[in-house]
Amino acid sequence: MPLIVPLLLAVVLFCIGVYGVLARRNAITMLMSFELMLNAVNLNLVAFDAWRLDGLATGQTLAVFVITLAAAEIGLGLAIVLLLFRGHGHVDADSARDLVEVDAVQQEKGAAT
Amino acid sequence: MNAILLGILALPILAAAALWAVPVAIADRLAALYGSVVSGVVLIGSLLLWPRGAWASYTTLQDRPLRAVTDVPWIPSLDVRFHVAVDSISMPLIVLTALLVFLCCLYSVRITPRIGRTRSLIALLLVIEAGVIGTFSAMDLVLFFVCFEIVLIPMWLVIDIWGDDHDPAGRRRAATTFVLMTVLGSALMLLGFLLVHRKAGTFDIVQLTNSPVLGGHGVALAAAILIAVGMAVKVPLWPLHIWLPDAHAKAPTVGSVLLAGVLLKLGTYGLIRILVPVLPDATVTIAPYLAGFSTVAIIAGSLACLAQTDVKRLIAYSSVGHMGFIGLGIATLSPAGLRGALFANIAHGIITGLLFFLAGAIKDRHDTSDLREIGRALYARLPRIAALLTFASLASLGLPGLAGFWGEMLVLLGAYNPADALPRATYLVFMVLAGLGTVLTAAYFLRLVRNLCQGDPADHLPAAFAVDLSRIELATWAPLIALTVLLGVWPGLLLHQWGNL
Amino acid sequence: MTLTWTDWQAIAVPLVLAVGAVVVLLVDGFWKSGSRELRHAVVTLLTSAAILFGLVFVWAQRGGFKPAFCRPAVEGPAECSLVFEPLTAGLWAVLLIGGLGVVGLSAYRLLAADVPIGEYHFLLLSALVGATVLAGARDLATMVIGLEVVSLPSFAMVALRRDRRGSEGALKAFLVSVLSTAVMLFGISYLYGVTGSLYLSTIANRLPGIDPDLRRVAFAAGLFVIVGFAFKIAAVPFHAWLPDTYVGAPVEVTAFLAVVSKSAGVAGLLVLVTAGVAADGSELRTVVAVLAAVTMTVGNLAALRQQEAVRLLAWSSIGQVGFLLAPLAVGDAQAVVGYLAAYVVVTLGAFGSVAVVQRHRPAGLLTDYRGMVRSEPGLAAALIFFLVVLAGLPPGLAGLFTKFAAFQAVIDAHLGWLAIVMAVNVMIGLAVYLRWVAELFRLPADDPFSVDIESPAVAMISLCAATAAVLSVLPSTMFALAT
Amino acid sequence: MIATAWRVTGVGFSLLVVLTAGLLYGTDPAQTSFMNSPVGDLTIGFGVRTDDLTVLLLAVVGVIATCVQVYSLGYLHQRPASYHALVTLFTAAMVTVVIADSLFLLLIGWEVMGACSYLLIGHYWERRDARSGAVKAFLMTRLADVGFLFGIFVLGVGAGTFRISELDPAQISPGVLTTGTLLLLVGVVGKSAQVPLQTWLPDAMPGPSPVSALIHAATMVAAGVFLIARLYDVFSASDTIMTVLAIVASVTMLFSALCAMAAVEVKRVLAWSTVSQLAIMFSGLSLGTADGRHAALFHLVTHAAFKGLLFLCAGVLLHQVGSAAFVVLRRYTRRGRLRKALPVTFATMTVGLAALAGVPGFAGFFSKDTVVEAAWHHARDGSVVGWIVLVSVCVTVVLTAFYCMRLWLWVFFRSPALAGALGAFEDDDPMADLEEPDTSKLRDAPWIMLAPLVLLAVASIGLGYADGVQLNWVLALVTTVLALLGALPAYSLWSRGADPRPVVLEREFGVDTAYHGLFVVPVRWFARLAVGGDQDVIGAYVRAAGRAGTLASQGFRRLQTGNVQTYLTAAVVGVVALAVVAGVISS
Asked: Which chain regions cross the lipid bilayer (chain D) (predicted)?
């Protein structure tokens, strides 16, 4: 298998992840998109590791770390989303706008009316 | 000797801190008296620094004896030293500063801005004094820059808090414009200093003077332009003068006096102290442009004065014209021009200080500085103040025999005979234009006298509260008047100091 | 034959901090008998002790060079994952001082009542562990771990109050941060692919010699890594989460974000740049320079019209980061660390002052500060001093000289355009802070702020002011940190 | 109290000047310099000298100043302190000019005189014409003084010294010499109100009459003549400058004599006559010969006496009658009161006018004849300048006789043809329809004012013989005939009750209007332009910068929508943009 195949796949995965982050409003879906992006990274790392064969298996090691990282992030992320749900009653990331600046809100209101 | 210099640098700061630190509210007059005493001591100290006799012996710009030298490392990693000293260029300016601050404090004993808070005002004046004296005595570019910046925030506060109480928005805008333009200018100036450092590897003005950064293009030119622009904002040179009329017009009397009398001098002093000796070749390259802008300043400032309807604004614009003369003198790079600039620095400080005191007195008495509202015939209503205003106007328009003349004359002489490397024909044109500028200067001062002092008293009944010259005013202004006459009839008093500069 | 070797002194500080974190958590969790005040005091003391140990250690070892997790390299000197050297000492000092300051700010009777004490200090210490590791890291994996260990606890701290504002702020910071981590890791994966190593020194050695076809890939990879840090330090255009999060969090946590979290990001970026990933003259440095210019301009401009104190500080901290990035773009560690030191001390002081006012005037508007020179002269004087240092004007010489050093670094690196942008931003920045200072001086105030200020706050603010004053008079101490 | 002190000081100082002149008379010329400061390779400092010229001028200045000060004791009651102080300063400034050996000291006196004249002309600052006349006087002389200053530069730098006694025309290159003296001449023209800077002098008439006497007789305008006499070596070394001077003088003397013919106020007639007489002095100087210089100085002295006398007489008219306008005076005259009520004034004024007109036997006659004689000698040697001077002086003699006769007759004598008619002057004055004045209370002035008149009247006759009578009888006859030629038409017009005043003369050739349109209006326009430029151009940039900052700030706040996905999008776009920008900058 040429190196380019996993790399391309990783790019595609990463782009899907980015798309998901930008387009989905549900915070849980966004978290899943992040997972996709991190998995793209892992795929890259493993592919490069296999290509480089540097003896330390650096890429694979880092991939393991990334998996751990992802777990930690998702854990914390879910906790924050839970808190958000408790406070707002929904998990729409783009509807949590309490902290917006006064001017911006006013302008939006002006545009709505 | 250097203890005196360090003393007059530290004393105002410490005194200001002490004044602020006093927890109880002390009476306004007591604060002003305290300020007078402190600044009086500083004045005495600065006079003690004044050399007695021995200075006529030195010869060239490169070989100028420094006095009261203190030179210790300050920030070794940035190559910054605490290097202060005085010489014949800075000494008169230091004395002028000390004198004007002293007079301002003295004036505040009786006459303060309506808003009160005299304690803070006095403290700020003292901080300004320290900053200005520090700038005049700094022999390290970075120290110069730091001291240059010290005066900004106090002056901003003085305008912002004690300014024209009829126009809070206007005084705030004036103060902010002043401080922002000056800060931008000084930041650019700092870039110039850093370029100098990159080329020469030192910030020490004495070393840089002895082995200047040569070359009239490239980095040296960029540095010269940046430094010149930074100083020009402070001077201010046309077209960077736009902050000046507002700041002067809105500032309280003491603020205007210090702003015009002292702060503007920082820029010209910097040009003479740093630009000319440190970047000689690059200065030659930009000097014609500097001279050109100065000439425009003379003409445009004078013309603008002709159309002003506000006394303080008019005097402020007159500063633009006068500072234009100083800029032109520096740009000639000739002995006469540089001396003229130095002399005009002092003369302008004294005369414009007096003018602003007078304008403040008139403003206090009429609660406005608008010519149309004040009315005419001050000769009848306030004869002494009007007479002094006429005197100061004559002095300011450069009447020979008064201090204003010698500076302008030497500047014009310098423009007639500029340094060899400069295009003489161009400077002759500048000289003629500047000469016409003196006529315009006379025109607007006469217009001021005509519209304010003269006129039919029947049309303008004297206000009930209008008191002519009070004792404190006389006491405050007398030294300025005396100096105006003294320097007018005896220019050698200063010219001699500068020897064969 | 040794596979790896470690000088344990190099990792003593993170270790102690980590142990301290666990101890704090245990004490708070299992010692239910003590009153809340007592527990708070003990926890604060423990935390301070751990951090103080770190500071003392750094002071004692400041000149040394102590590598950890080293292995012999294929070519060149040994590759190490974590190094304690003078630069690290300087960064650690700054980070630890910042951490200590935040602990002081959170001392008894200051921290919001609804924040759990043990968790708070545990998270704080954990983040400090991450920060110190990040500042000492010399390979990309360690860096990522360090960065995450700084970030995740800070999000938790933001949400620690468990209210609507906190959760929203935490979510925003979290989402942006996770995206940044992903982007950064993506970059790291390519960097690894191109150079075959994660050690910074090795990468620096191999980058110049790589296949020209891969140069673009290497550039993109480096860009992605820098962007990851840019998220962390909220450089424009990756800054938008910052004001919202700052406003949403309790003021102490905001101070922590502004001081420790941001310093950690800068430290990581500094290590990355100076260790050679972005070599002198490389496009990546241009990237950082562009970031610096855009960040300071946008930050200062946006701060210009803010009405709330915290939001103003938030935007202005973006502007300050812009100034920090300028010497960073030319790899001048001394200027960066000096700037960071002054910034940390003064920001702590400013947030401390804001915390005092905000506790009694929750709206946190600038107008709440009106007339404070008369009603609260001491606090006002300190706040003015902090603001003036941030603006970089006398009497705030600490700020002036750090900005000066930044200018000098930029000028010496022939980045004229950046210097001009900086000069303009000095002006805009001054305009920002002067609005606040003007409010403080404005008299007469209808309803001047005047309370009995809590003694920990007095101590903290006085300490910050005194430190800033010392740094102003003897600026060389700041610049001595990184030499 | 203060006023008295200044009165005493004033009189005392002028007597001191006379005394000094007396003491210095006959002593050897000497000069000394002091307070010198080196400026580059030049020296800025002061110096004084004494020689015959100094003594002569000191005497003239002292005597006239004494007369004026004494006269003012009776004349002036409004604000005497400042008045006497300023007159004293004025005198002192002229003394400075006279004794100066340094060009800068000379300039100080020169310009302080200008300032004093400004303040004194504006003494009655309640009056509009006094205010504008004062401003005009100062500005025009100041404009000229700029030229003067530049002239000092050119000569001083060219010769390497600013000491008058060290200026050696032989060591100055001809170009520098011509330029320098030409520029100095600009100052002289301004100070002495020669064409084209003549308009300020007639407008300076609202000042107190004694001040006019001082300005016209001994100080200010005489300073111009003095300066050329002082620097005669330098000036006469350049033929160009002498020709220019001759032309200026000829044009001026004719121009101003013509203007004087149409003026309807005693002081204005006298003012124009001063301009004309000064031009005669300049024409004498322009000959470039020792004779010419001598003639000019002689005329300066006699002119000082009779012009001082005339102005003091006009002052008496003003003081006793209240106006010196023909139309007002005619009201008294047609009843025959004026001559009888003011006998001393009439007598002395007649002497003064006779001297001015060049009636044989009076001082003016002799001094004018010396000028004519010098010109004749010069012209006979084939000099064009001589001819120009000769012809113009002769024509001026005719014109002078005309306006002196006209003044004398109209002011003091009833017109035989139209006795009692205001006729000729009525339309000029808004006061014309006033009631007839009460002439019964008209008295001559107090003795303290009349004494100087008598003294000066004696001088106006006696000074003519001071130099010894060395008349060229033919020329004397010719000028007498010429004067008669001028006087006769005046008499015949008066006797017919007619006073034709051509519009062009009455408007003084429209010079004032032209200057107003050419200089004053554009300057005002430029002033508005400068203010507008500051506000709308430079100020606009500053304001726009501030506005832009605010708008940008507003914009960034709008971008802060609170929507985290916007933030993320911005970030992703930012990554791409950053890559592009970095690529552009690096490449």
From this structure: 53-76, 83-100, 106-125, 146-165, 171-190, 211-229, 241-262, 269-288, 308-329, 341-364, 384-402, 407-425, 445-466, 473-494, 566-585
